[in-house]
Amino acid sequence: MKLIFEHSSKGQNKYRIPSYEGINKSIIPDKFLRNDEPLPDVAEPEVVRHYNNLSRMNFGVDNGMYPLGSCTMKYNPKINEKLAKRSGFADLHPLSDESCSQGALRILYDLSDYLCRITGFSQFTLAPAAGSHGELTGVMIIKKFFESTGDKRDTILIPDSAHGTNPATVAMCGFKVKEVPSDSEGNVDIEVLKSMLNENVAAMMLTSPNTLGLYDRNLAAVSRMLHENGSLFYGDGANLNATMGRTRFKDMGFDMMHINLHKTFSTPHGGGGPGSGPLGVTAKLAKFLPIPCIEKIEDRYILNFESEDSIGRIHSFYGNFAICLRAYIYIRMLGADGIREAAETAVLNANYLMARLKKIYNLPIDRTCMHEFVLNDKGIPNGITTNEIAKRILDYGFHAPTVYFPLLISGAMMIEPTETESLESLDRFVEVLEKIRKECDENPEAVLSAPGNTPVRRVDTVLAAKTPVLTWDQ
Ligand SMILES: *Cc1c(COP(=O)(O)O)cnc(C)c1O
């Protein structure tokens, strides 16, 4: 595949930039008046073909099953896109007056309300642009809360199974990170936690269900111990897809949580595009939420920028409105019953896959799972590891699972089918994994040299990470 610049040859592009004669140079500075920019010279049909061909080299949930654990790559209904493109939404300027944006404000207000009902919290901010940004907002609130009480607490506890953004966020906010080990069942080790609790512990961040796809059986005890210690309990809600409509984070004892709309509520993600990570809090923490808050006074929606205790702004305007809008549409379409059914189906699909796959791959923690589970490469012969198996999966037209995460399982393969996969596609995935397991014994070369039929073959990931090419010289 060539770069667009390599398609360039002089005179192909018949479009010509008008001459600059007569342009008022006091308005447009000289440095912008040049027509020797090194742009590719390519005819329109070639441009269209180039980008179409590039898009076909990509793999997404619209091409095939994408069981990337921890990411909830569910199908995003196209109606979300269709409605979000309506000009009433798409052309609305973020600086337009409240009186002209009542519809949009109402959607944000109602979405916060739905998230409160789903989780039990009192108030949400929709401003954070990602799950990790929600974490940042939450930990800033934790900091502000203890400033307000005069406590000098400088430590936040995080289980060893946590997503990397948890310790990163905590460190960014100036807290010390202390890691809590898991027991052999994948729960927080309660005895060790007890020994770690003291007057320095501001909070604990816990993912529920955790990143092994397991519901922590010690959750109630953990919550009680933290609160007895005067600490706050932060819920990482990235895995809400497993429990929405069935249990509420507030009822489980959390003081705050973030939700990844781009995971649970079917808004597009991947490629670093816009996401949304709303943060919900209990009533006692609501005054610290970022500004502006959307409020309803009689039947008018207003933006309230007045808040003495707020941590301030954390995003321009009101967050990623178009993403919130898609999540709103999804929730409205499913309704309360549909939300619950989505979670139940996600858990059922994961347990079905786990029950079938544990017969052929090692399952380090053998418990009923939630919406995802973790296999590993123990016992695979001929020097084949998780990395090769993941590459071989690509050859058969599926996206690979998440690999080597969570870190506490060596050679982890983390599989999350989501509720949007049919029984047929789950069975096809099992067939492929059976075939690959057989190849490991009978034709190891095919696995060791994979991928063999993707647009890009095995890349040197170490080289790519250590010497990235960040500029392109003609
Ligand atoms: C995805 C994820 C995050 C981070 O969310 P982003 O939206 O990618 O910033 C945090 N914790 C867990 C458990 C996750 O799966």
Describe this structure as you would to a colleague:
This protein is of the alpha/beta class and 474 residues long. It has 3 domains: 4-55, no CATH class; 78-334, Type I PLP-dependent aspartate aminotransferase-like (Major domain) (Aspartate Aminotransferase, domain 2, 3-Layer(aba) Sandwich); 342-466, Aspartate Aminotransferase, domain 1 (Alpha-Beta Complex). It is built from 14 helices and 12 strands. The protein has a 7-stranded mixed beta sheet, sandwiched between helices. Strands 10-12-11 form a 3-stranded antiparallel beta sheet, with helices on one face. A hairpin with an 8-residue loop joins strand 11 (402-403) and strand 12 (412-415). Helix 2 (78-84) packs antiparallel against helix 10 (321-357), helix 5 packs across helix 6 and helix 10 (321-357) crosses helix 12. Pyridoxal-5'-phosphate binds next to helix 5.
The separation of the N and C termini measures: 17 Å
Low-confidence spans: none
Rounded to the nearest angstrom, the radius of gyration is 25 Å
Total domain count: 3
Number of strands: 12
- Examine the secondary-structure arrangement and name the CATH architecture of the largest domain: 3-Layer(aba) Sandwich
Strand composition percent: 5-15%
- Can you tell me the CATH superfamily of the largest domain? Type I PLP-dependent aspartate aminotransferase-like (Major domain)
User: What ligand species are in this complex?
Assistant: pyridoxal-5'-phosphate
Largest sheet: 7 strands, mixed
Mean pLDDT: 94
SSE string: HHHHEHEHEHEHEEHEEEHEHEEHHH
In which order are the strands of the major sheet placed? 1-7-6-5-4-2-3
Tell me the helix content.
25-40%
Shape: globular
What is the CATH T-level topology of the largest domain?
Aspartate Aminotransferase, domain 2
The CATH class of the largest domain: Alpha Beta
Structural category: alpha/beta
Specify the number of helices: 14
